[in-house]
Design brief:
By secondary structure, the protein is mainly β. It has 2 domains: 94 residues, no CATH class; 111 residues, Alpha-Beta Plaits (2-Layer Sandwich). Helix content is 7%, strand content 37%. Strand 11 and strand 12 form a beta hairpin. The longest helix has 8 residues. It is globular and about 55 Å long. The relative contact order is 0.14.
Length: 231
């Protein structure tokens, strides 16, 4: 079970929280924020150590700055508040639904605490592709936003230079729960205001969000992708 505020202590004990935030000496823990990770249905794997995926998702529900691993393989989720969340190693049966990714922190203390710049755009051309119910997508998180189900998933942006209609076209490919890729649509053309299309020169991972308006009647779901960009 993950330990909230380092030792599952009361939130009102701020001095103890501050002490727990630095309970492990920096020389005894390793920054694994940008280590390639494996995520499955049951576990997150970092450096061949597994952590329960539900506990990891609970820890990630906030503005995470960095991830650390100590010599006892405990995983530290350092936040931009006084809270430190810790996940303990577990043993799981091997997952069959695996995705590989690098964690992207929402906030970076080394840049003065400023948010990492991102671009979010609506995916276009979705009505021309085979429709998949939102429940079929691999979900990192599921929320309710203004009464509408919101799914956070992963996508791959793939340039399609052989596209007969647009040699600059970029496909948006999502991941389904069965591990299969699904062509969701395309990035907006640059001449129509798309900012991402001219930036994607090679396959790049993105965050895919699905707003399930189809739950409310005869409406189409909407899809957006978010990509971290350099200044």
């Amino acid at each position: 079970m993950f330990l909230l505020n380092a030792l599952d202590i009361d939130d009102t004990n701020e001095p103890l929280l501050a002490r727990c935030k630095h309970i492990i000496d920096a020389n005894e823990r390793t920054n694994v924020t940008h280590v390639i990770m494996k995520r499955g249905d049951n576990a997150l794997e970092i450096n061949n150590i597994q952590y329960d995926i539900e506990e990891v998702d609970a820890c990630l529900d906030g503005h995470i700055v960095r991830l650390y691993q100590d010599k006892k393989h405990r995983l530290y989720f350092d936040t931009d508040t006084e809270n430190v969340h810790i996940a303990l190693p577990v043993k799981h049966q091997k997952d069959t639904n695996i995705s590989t990714f690098t964690f992207q922190p929402k906030v970076d203390l080394s840049s003065g605490g400023e948010h990492m710049p991102t671009i979010t755009e609506k995916v276009v051309g979705t009505t021309f592709q085979e429709h998949k119910d939102y429940s079929e997508y691999f979900a990192i998180r599921e929320d309710i936003e203004h009464g509408v189900t919101s799914i956070t998933s992963v996508a791959l942006l793939i340039p399609e230079p052989d596209n007969p209609y647009d040699p600059h076209a970029v496909m948006v490919v999502g991941k389904l729960k069965n591990g299969q890729p699904h062509h969701v649509g395309y990035l907006q053309r640059s001449e129509k205001g798309g900012q991402l299309q001219p930036r994607i020169k090679k396959p790049q991972q993105a965050t895919l969000r699905i707003l399930a308006y189809s739950d409310s009647g005869d409406f189409n779901d909407t899809y957006t992708v978010t990509v971290d960009v350099a200044d």
